[in-house]
Amino acid sequence: MSLLLDTNALLWAVVSPERLGRNARRVMEADGTILASAASLFEVAIKFRAGKLPVSPEQLIDRIERSAFVDLGIEQRHLAAIPELRLSHADPFDLLLVAQAQADSLTLLTADRKILAGFAGALDASQ
Description:
CATH class: Alpha Beta
Structural class: alpha/beta
Shape: globular
Largest sheet: 5 strands, parallel
CATH architecture: 3-Layer(aba) Sandwich
CATH superfamily: 5'-nuclease
Number of strands: 5
Order of helices and strands: EHHEHHEHHEHE
Helix content: 40-55%
Strand order of the largest sheet: 3-2-1-4-5
Mean pLDDT: 94
Distance between the termini: 18 Å
Number of domains: 1
Low-confidence stretches: none
């Protein structure tokens, strides 16, 4: 299984893994690819700059590299998939992450209740 981590799941995985649920950790430890989206790095950079996160983009990139997660860039096909989403969500980062997961047939690990309720390809990071 290829697993895309949303921003919170990514931060939990590399900064405070104890916040991930037991099932989420089990899925991450199983054979498969774990992806970290450029969208999450962009979101972290914005929130760090605004003083809302203590982890800098550089620190996150270093931890991602040490975790051997695979980078997922933002492609035109991801952006083109956004209007087709049947998801009631206003957060542009979350919309992009869902579009990436859908376009690339990835399972999205998230604790976001709106995504979990509206996107069949999501798995709860808190469980």
